[in-house]
Amino acid sequence: MSVPAAPSPGRQRGDTAYDVVLYGASGFVGQQTVAYFARHAPNELRWAIAGRDRGRLERVRRDAGVSVDVLVAEGRDGPALDDVASRTRVILSTAGPFARHGDALVDACVRFGTHYADSTGETPWVRALIDRHHDQAAASGTRIVPCCGFDSVPSDLGALLVARHVQRAFGVSCEWVDAIYRMRGGVVNGGTIESAFALAEEAPSGDPADPFLLNASEERPEDAAKHRDPRLPRRRTDLGGWVAPFVMAPVNTRVVRRSASLLTSWDEGYGPDFGYQEYLQLDGRLAAARAVGLALMLGVGRGVMRSPGLRRSIRQLLPAAGSGPAEEAMDGGWFSCQLVARAADGRRARATISDVGDPANRVTVKLVCESALALATGGDALPGGATRGGVLTPATALGLVLAERLRRSGMTVEVTSCA
């Protein structure tokens, strides 16, 4: 296959055949992205679907009732991926595990100045992207935006909104944000499970337990201990009662801290000593016991993932890649993320991001699709205007444009000062 010459970065709409290409469209989450675009993409949006199997992609297109183009490119076929990246302004990828299948696609996006968003939660892989591509993407104004699903949009966007509220309403810096999740559902699909195993099996770029994994290597505050992942349950009356470690915190907190670091480098930071942490809130008379039980389960899970033999045994009992929960299960869930900010003068503000639908599937699909649509349609309204680029985060790449899109999609996104 011949490879087209790379266009200059910051391509305009007329320079490409498509505004968005959905890559990995025949996978479990990918099929849902196609259905979401079929229902919600603007009529004038030019989009296509892509993946490695034409037959499966054509079935997905038929099931969604759309007549979009089908592009075929295997995840390690560099020339084919170059062809896809050269023909679109934005690529949305749900083709995980990303540490195994994502490198060549992001490489192509950086070469051709194509904006990119995905649903990964694989922070060591994101660290490798930063090391390999951040400087070049920043110079060309190409936005590479991983972690646009439930990992980690509510945390990252919520922290941005509540910290900015503190700065505007109180006129002081934001010192700390605690995020408290409540949720029902969370039935993970086989692809997400496969990504978790890949995270344990692939050679990592950096230590996943490092609270500042995604920050610049020299950024290590003197009081770094207070940023470590909580391992024990605790009673926090200021946060509503008993809280436990949150399974997604080791992803979300790293993304929020990268946002804070990038914003500080652009003189747009939250505050000189900004900190962020998050928890799962447990309600009811047995909240304390449930918090202890959950902390123990997470500890056992970490031990299992460190043992190759136990990983192999457990893997056989879990859903395979390409499978996922039933429609009814995905429709029946919900989540709520409450973010409590403490200003430098002690005053507080609160943000709420919540929605219905299973967080791991329905919510992730909405978030990642709206992120791609924000990239495709946001233009100069995106943070930093047309020139911002790099391996970014949802907050630093999409910001208020994404917040407004989510509000219009039916998601609750609110910020208030506390009494």
What does this structure look like?
The protein has two domains: 173 residues, Rossmann fold, CATH 3.40.50; 218 residues, Dihydrodipicolinate Reductase, domain 2. Helices cover 42% and strands 20% of the residues.
Largest sheet: 7 strands, parallel
Structural class, by secondary structure, is: alpha/beta
Arrangement of strands in the largest sheet: 3-2-1-4-5-6-13
Helix content percent band: 40-55%
Q: From the alpha-carbon coordinates, what is the Rg to the nearest angstrom? A: 21 Å
| Inertia-based shape | globular
- The beta-strand count equals 14
Name of the CATH first level of the largest domain: Alpha Beta
The protein's oligomeric status is single chain
How many separate domains make up the residues? 2
Percent strand equals 15-25%
CATH architecture of the largest domain: 2-Layer Sandwich
Tally of helical segments: 15
- Distance linking N and C termini: 63 Å
Mean pLDDT across all amino acids: 88
Runs with pLDDT <50, length 5+? 1-9
- Element order: H for helix, E for strand: EHEHEHEHHEHEHEHEEHEHHHEEHEHHE
CATH fold title of the largest domain: Dihydrodipicolinate Reductase, domain 2
